[in-house]
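pls design
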């Protein structure tokens, strides 16, 4: 049975869909990025009598989630959600010069045909809710930082309004933090996993919530290497021939929220805990740059958290020389 590929270019309001058959023939359809639009897409697929379908789309913000969840419910369908950087690199390798939504959907379909990306596993309702809350909390903290910066140089005419907004933001942040704690407490599995993560010295409440939102089921990643790459904390080297010897740095091709959530815990672990201090001194003695050491500590923390969740055992300092 031939598997037909459906490439979807996702935007906020619409989905450009290209159906690619094994013979190279294509069909194009544009629908709204909504429940009604996806119902139209399914009717269109049924009209073309597709027996086995592999759907592929980019992880563009949160706009892809409805389409991925809807298509994953079909019994004849496998859904893959890929990093946009993969599609960009694939297009460059094929010398693609046209940039339209239809062309992007066709490129995604061809990428899926050649590379056969892994199937995406939809998160549980509890994980989806927690992700929404931690994303909202991050946005609120960002707004508070902006308003605090404005307050420093604000004129008297607007100072009162900024102060009122800061008070409101503080109330919303405190309320959302309580909501996140209650949400984790209400789920026995998440509650147990929170206790495991809290056993890691240097990892605080906000980082635990982010880890549970994205890594509550580590078996989805299989290996720590993939979990690290998901956050863009994998090292990237730049060397060529005998003359180019660039400094190793983080790839940053991954989820920015997970990466941000590990920066301050890495600082705390490296300078305030015994196990992190030993790790920092070992790299420093090897001549590593301080910024590189913090990046390595961020990666190490995520690897440790992944191992704790996967094994179901709390952090053991003896395994890290402490």
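designed seq:
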């Amino acid at each position: 049975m031939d598997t037909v590929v459906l490439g979807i270019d996702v935007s906020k309001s619409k989905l450009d869909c290209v159906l690619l058959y094994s013979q190279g023939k294509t069909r194009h359809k544009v629908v709204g990025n909504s429940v009604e639009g996806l119902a139209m897409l399914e009717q269109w697929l049924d009209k073309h009598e597709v027996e086995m379908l592999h759907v592929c789309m980019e992880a563009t913000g949160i706009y892809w989630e409805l389409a991925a969840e809807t298509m994953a419910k079909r019994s004849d369908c496998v859904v893959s959600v890929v990093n946009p950087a993969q599609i960009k690199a694939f297009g460059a390798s094929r010398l693609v010069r046209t940039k339209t939504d239809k062309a992007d959907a066709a490129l995604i379909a061809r990428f899926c045909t050649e590379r056969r990306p892994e199937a995406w596993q939809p998160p549980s309702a509890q994980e989806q809710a927690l992700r929404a809350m931690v994303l909202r909390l991050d946005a609120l903290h960002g707004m508070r930082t902006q308003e605090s910066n404005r307050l420093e140089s604000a004129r008297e005419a607007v100072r009162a309004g900024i102060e009122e907004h800061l008070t409101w933001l503080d109330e919303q942040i405190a309320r959302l933090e309580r909501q996140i704690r209650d949400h984790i407490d209400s789920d026995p599995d998440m509650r147990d996993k929170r206790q495991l993560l809290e056993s890691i010295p240097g990892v605080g409440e906000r980082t635990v919530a982010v880890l549970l939102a994205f890594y509550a089921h580590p078996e989805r990643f299989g290996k720590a290497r993939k979990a690290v790459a998901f956050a863009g904390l994998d090292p990237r080297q730049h060397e060529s021939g005998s003359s180019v010897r660039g400094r190793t740095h983080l790839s940053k091709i991954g989820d920015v929220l997970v990466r941000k959530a590990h920066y301050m815990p890495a600082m705390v672990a490296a300078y305030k805990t015994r196990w992190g201090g030993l790790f920092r001194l070992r790299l420093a003695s090897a001549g590593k740059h301080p910024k590189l050491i913090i990046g390595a500590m961020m990666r190490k923390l995520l690897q440790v958290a992944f191992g704790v969740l996967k094994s179901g055992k709390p952090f053991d300092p003896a395994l890290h020389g402490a």
